Amino acid sequence: MTEADGLADAVAGVPKNRREVEPWLDALVNGNRFTIAVFFPLVGALMLVGSAEGWAVIPEPLRFNPPFLVFGTIVMAAPMLVGVLPTLGRRALGGLGLLTAYTYLIEYVGVTTGWPYGFFEYGVSLGPMIGGIPAALPVFFIPLVLNAYLLCLLLLGDRAASRLARLAVVIPAVVTMDLVLDPAAVSLGFWAYDAGGVFYGVPLSNFAGWVLSAIVAVGVLDLSLDQSGLFDRLHRCKFMLDDMVSFVILWGAINAWFGNWLPVAVAVAFGLGVLRAKQFDVGLLRPSTGVYLPRVVDTDHEP
To answer: What is the average pLDDT score of the chain?
Structure first.
């Protein structure tokens, strides 16, 4: 085989359109579930705790390294993002765009005025900062809301056909996820509230603010997403909630290190919810021999 032939084969294996990209991504995520859902959050927890505690084994350039933080978040969110992708149409993309704008707006208002979360300041750069807020903020926030939305759809079963039931369950679920996230983030020094707080350094005003943000975010998603498409996808694609597994491992472990035991219990409850929804097989908790890279087969030209 000549060099030109090898290049041609490589180019032929690259997906060229959405019809090819979606199954390629499915195979990529499905072949690397342990690495994404277990290995990444475990390493992330060690790196974050080591950075906060000043462990000598974590070199200074790697401590709270912003590109690593964003990259790790995207990798762990990949199963959910890839799972949702085939259901996204123009209305859903418009809703996600609106939610992205809201994420920046409410965070800017929060940083500059203290409303609705309470006055706080970032102590760690979570990637490039614009106007005092992380440019990658939607990467951190939107997957969290989507994870809660997908988990609740599964746990509600037939009752999820009711919009009122969806909103009544998903909104509290999003706020409850922050009971895990915020105490761990404060313990790490990601951000700090000027007046401190009664819940592991987090003020009650923060959770009141999350109620507002959850109402807006869940409301926008519920009006924008194709619920029937999501139901079908959830039952055919078993890795869609792997990011929730990563959330439980990462933030549960960090909270455990700092002795935040109530957030640990809440994280475990979310993990049990994923298992009850039968979206994560404990038999998958074994490392693969390497990264699985799928090859796209053009079925239109098969003999």
So the answer is: 90
